[in-house]
Amino acid sequence: MSKIITILGIESSCDDTSAAIIQDGKMLANVIANQKVHELYGGVVPELASRAHQLNIIPVIDQALKRANISKKQIDAVAFTRGPGLLGSLLVGTSFAKSFSLALNIPLIEVNHMQGHILAHFIDDPENMGKPNFPFLCLTVSGGHTQIVRVNDFFDMEILGETIDDAAGEAFDKVAKVLGLPYPGGPLVDKYAKEGNAKAFKFSRPQVADFDFSFSGLKTNVMNFINQETQKNEHFITENLKNICASIQYTIIDILISKLLKASDETGITEIAIAGGVSANSELRKRLLEFKEQKNWNVYIPKFEYCTDNAAMIAITGYYKYLKNDFTNQSIAPKARYSI
Fold this sequence. Notes:
Elements (H helix, E strand, L loop, with lengths): L5 E6 L5 E7 L2 E8 L12 H23 L8 E7 L3 H18 L3 E5 H7 L16 E6 L4 E8 L2 E7 L5 H11 L7 H8 L22 H17 L3 H32 L3 E5 L6 H13 L3 E3 L10 H13 L17
Parallel strand pairs: 1-4, 4-5, 6-9, 9-10
Antiparallel strand pairs: 1-2, 2-3, 6-7, 7-8
Helix pairs in contact: 1-2, 3-9, 4-6, 4-7, 5-7, 6-7, 7-8
């Protein structure tokens, strides 16, 4: 009988402290502690984030072990997010993982955060839309990243295109701030957009070569538009909030989908996945499912729980690295910038 492999995953790249237990690819527990303090500032404050991670990490890991109904002595390896992310936040997770590994004399596995988002599709969970076949294209979209990745194997990934300035998730949040919506604003834009007219207002679309993205021009265009309209009518935002949100969201998602279409056409790959925080966006999911029918794509959309930053995606990546004996050592250090 083959040995059961149990991995503890730790994620601390930004403002969510998370711990998860994966056993032979199946999630037993995935605990996430959010940090409400950043709402006061309209964005993540790095120093406050790292302090909150220090407070949260032990209770979160303790809760994950209890939910999984296992003891720490049953853990075969600890996987942690090495980067990319906020250095202070990454240091907390890295330091704890190294200590945990040393104390129990178990292997230590470093994980690239963006690889984790992509490999979340391989968690054994019926609420995931199946596991993609290699090779597949993954549109990875979050507050810090926007990429189209060709995934040839678990650890053979090639970035075909990425943002040359702002990420799509950042554009959502910055636009939401201009509209007076609290942080994080992306989910609220999605909420109001559902009741608005996506064709009410037209915004600029960047002309960027190949599979790369740009959202800074769109962000500036929206800000100028809002300033001009509120000078004419101080109640413009409140009177048109749903239509503004719907129009902005439609534009951002259309930019993402058009590049994904181009990548699929040029590579001939019809296995299409999405990952990252913005993959929870309802318009992106809807448009992707429409092209599933139109283009005969096999589409893979992660469970909502695996879209935002979470440790289950770190643990599943750690599981596949464990199978390859791909371990690191105590000299490992976090990296704020860390390409796949």
